[in-house]
Structures are given as C-alpha cells and as structure tokens.
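Following up on my earlier thread - several people asked me to post the actual chain instead of describing it. Fair enough. Here it is, all 139 residues.
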Amino acid sequence: MSWDILNTKIFLKNIASSALMLFIMFALFGNLPQSLFESLHVKKEAFSIMVLFLLFSPLISFILMPLFGLMSRYNEYRADEYGSMCESKEALCSALVKLADENKSFPFSHPLSIALYFTHPPLTQRLEKLGMRFSKEDH
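Reply from S.P.:
Thanks for posting it. Predicted structure:
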C-alpha cells in the first residue's frame, strides 16, 4: 500500500471521527431536558443551548480524548510499519533514537499517562514494536 493511500485513509478516518464526535455533542446538547433549563432559570432557546455547549464541550472533549489518542497511536504504529518497509527496521529505529536524543524526550511513561495524554506511542514501545529488545537493566 502506498503511503499516500494510507495517509489519505488515516486523514478520512480522522475527519469522520471528528464529525461523529461533533454530531454526538450536537445531538446531546440539542436534546437536553426542559427541566435543566428550568433549574437554570433560562428559556430553552438556541442561544442558551449554545452557551451550555460552549461551557461543557471542553469537558466532553477531555473525556473523549483518550479514544482519539488511541486512534492516533495506532496510526503511528502503522506509519512506523510502512517506514520500516520502505527502508529497514534498523534505519527507522536509528532515526527514532536520534530524534528522541535531539528532542531530549523521556522515553518512559506511565501507561495511564500514555492512555490519557499521548497522541504518539512512547519511543520504547515504538522500538519494541519494530523488533528492538530492551533488558530490565535498560529501564
């Protein structure tokens, strides 16, 4: 599979997942119960729905971000796989290590931190997926 085709598929999946998230958020906020508006002492009108949307959409986005991060990490693994087929796994491993050294990135992270905040897999996981093995002393 050519990288252009793979990249286009990833791009279209990202667009579709973002559109789905917006659809769900609009559906959620468009169908809020009347009792909520009564408890807030506002009328159920477009402006009040939009204000609630603007106030709470960051919270919903935060809740959904681990899902988008998971998809992004999956795409990075696929890109690494494709890159290793174009040149070699050793060349890609070498390039990733050089990038990490130049960026002074820390290669180890807690799995919960990775799940919640990372859009790219940690360096060690990417290298292990490419076949590079680490001993316990390396950690």
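The chain has a mean pLDDT of 84. That should answer part of your original question.
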